[in-house]
Amino acid sequence: MKPTRSHGRQSARPNLKPRALMQDTPDYADVWQARIVTLFPDLFPGVLGASLTGKALQEGRWQLHTHDLRDFGIGRHRNVDDTPAGGGAGMVMRADVVGPALARAQSHAHGRWPILYMSPRGRRFDQAMARDLADCAGVTMLCGRFEGVDERVIEHFGITEVSLGDFVMTGGELAAQAMIDATVRLLPGVLGNAESIEEESHASGLLEHPQYTRPAEWEGREIPPVLMSGNHGEIAKWRQAQAEDLTRSRRPDMWAARESKD
Questions:
Q1: DSSP strand E in the chain: where?
Q2: Structure confidence at residue 8 (pLDDT)
Q3: What is the pLDDT of residue 194?
Q4: Per CATH, which fold does 19-184 belong to?
């Protein structure tokens, strides 16, 4: 019988940690780095290994390193947590575990290099923070689990607590990936069209205007005629008006901040 197409080939299995992206590479002083302190290093690069961020990672435009908290665990079972002082539910990540892990991560730091802790009580992450992180030499992110981390670690390292929003997740890994994605795309050479960064939502304190493309008519809905007119001045006015209307209706907080600034 004629062998099937898969005959003699290695099987492919999904892997959250692509070797080509996460293999050990030397650190370069001029390349932006993200260092992740986590109990689940196999979750990285995750979504960061796909699309433009993955391509940029493979090209060496930025680097990603993980530091496994379990390597710093205490005792035979590598314990990383203990019961809360004063009682209460859940477990707290130990200072004598998290502290050495952060010290190891920061031993590679150079220049302006903040430490962020993914925490629901932290400052809300926004585009301004992403731009600021992109201007740093790198960032270290601590991904919490359980009831959080011993407060003394936060005080000792001067850690900034950051939140994606007013909700609680089981861990900080997804939040860290979202923040890194928002930051890496701002690095030079990652996006093919730099103008798209200037025009997208939040870049100017407004939500982005609606976007359209071919076909000219779909399900009885047409592209607004002004966008087909070729009059770039009128197109710019229309887009500005749309961005203002959307921001005013959907994000009154952003609109109020813009008006107070004006």
A1: 32-38, 62-68, 81-82, 92-93, 115-124, 138-143, 160-163, 217-218, 221-222
A2: 35
A3: 60
A4: Alpha/beta knot (3.40.1280)
